[in-house]
Specification:
Elements (H helix, E strand, L loop, with lengths): L2 H18 L4 H12 L2 H16 L1
Length: 55
């Protein structure tokens, strides 16, 4: 399974959880990513764009 497909599935699952539980999980994750700039996020972005170039 491609990385982009995995990310889309995970975002859909997070969106469903966000609908069920009224705590804005996606918003909290976005704030965390913007403020902390975790290395795993940068690696994931590089992997997504690397896969798009190869297609």
């Amino acid at each position: 399974m491609k990385t982009t497909t995995k990310i889309i599935i995970q975002l859909i699952c997070l969106g469903l959880v966000d609908i069920i539980i009224p705590i804005p999980i996606l918003g909290i994750m976005l704030i965390y990513i913007v403020l902390q700039k975790p290395p795993w996020f940068r690696e994931m972005v590089y992997e997504v764009y690397k896969n798009q170039r190869q297609s």
